[in-house]
Task: inverse folding
C-alpha cells in the first residue's frame, strides 16, 4: 500500500477525500497533523494554501503588501524540505495551486506576486478559465477552475510549460522533465468533477509503482 506525504488543511480534507476515494489503497500522511517519515513515503502531494512566506522566496519583493497576511511559515518549511527529499528519491509529485508555486520556487524559479483577473470567487469551483496546451501534454483540459492571485514568473530549470491561460498566457500546467513523474497545475482538480479524474489516476498509478 503506497504512503502519500502531504500537508493538508482541515478545510481541504473533504475535497481530497472525495478526489482520492477511487484509490482506497492509499495511506495519506498529513504533515499538518503529525510527523511524516519521508523515507517510507512513495509520493508527495502539494496542495493549495496561503501565499509562500517572504523568507522562502528567491526574489526581490518591491511591495511586501501584495503578499497576503495569512501565511504559514511552518508549513512552508515542511513543504520545501519535503520537495528536496522527494526529488532526491525521484518520488512522484503532484502539485496543485500553491503547490505549483512551491515546486517552482524550490527548483529555483520565481513568482509573479500579484496578478489581476484570476481570483474571482466563482472561478474556484467552476470551470470558467479556458486553457491552451502544448501538444506534448498528456492531460488536456479545455476549461478549468483556476483561482489565484500569484503565478509563475521565471520558470525553474528542468521544467516545461504544458498549459497556459488562453486569455493572458499565465502558466497553468507544468511538468518536470527528465523525471519519472512530477506534474504541477495552478487550477484545483480536487474541487472539480470527472474531467479531473485522470490527473489523480495518473499520479496514483505512479505511486503504486513505487510501493
Result:
Amino acid at each position: 500500500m503506497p504512503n502519500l506525504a502531504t500537508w493538508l488543511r482541515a478545510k481541504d480534507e473533504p475535497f481530497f477525500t472525495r478526489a482520492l476515494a477511487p484509490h482506497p489503497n492509499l495511506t495519506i500522511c498529513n504533515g499538518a497533523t503529525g510527523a511524516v517519515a519521508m523515507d517510507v513515503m512513495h509520493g508527495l502531494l502539494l496542495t493549495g494554501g496561503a501565499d509562500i512566506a517572504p523568507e522562502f522566496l528567491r526574489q526581490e519583493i518591491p511591495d511586501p503588501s501584495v503578499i497576503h497576511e495569512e501565511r504559514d511559515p511552518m508549513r512552508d518549511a515542511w513543504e520545501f524540505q519535503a520537495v528536496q527529499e522527494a526529488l532526491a528519491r525521484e518520488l512522484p509529485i503532484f502539485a496543485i495551486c500553491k503547490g505549483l508555486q512551491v515546486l517552482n520556487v524550490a527548483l529555483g524559479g520565481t513568482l509573479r506576486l500579484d496578478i489581476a483577473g484570476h481570483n474571482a470567487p466563482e472561478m474556484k469551483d467552476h470551470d470558467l478559465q479556458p486553457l491552451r496546451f502544448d501538444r506534448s501534454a498528456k492531460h488536456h483540459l479545455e476549461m478549468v477552475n483556476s483561482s489565484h492571485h500569484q503565478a509563475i514568473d521565471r520558470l525553474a530549470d528542468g521544467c516545461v510549460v504544458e498549459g497556459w491561460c488562453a486569455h493572458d498566457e499565465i502558466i497553468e500546467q507544468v511538468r518536470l522533465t527528465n523525471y519519472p513523474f512530477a506534474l504541477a497545475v495552478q487550477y484545483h482538480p480536487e474541487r472539480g468533477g470527472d474531467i479531473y479524474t485522470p490527473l489523480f489516476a495518473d499520479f496514483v498509478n505512479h505511486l503504486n509503482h513505487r510501493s
Remarks:
- Helices lie at 13-19, 73-89, 98-106, 197-210.
- The first helix runs from residue 13 to 19.
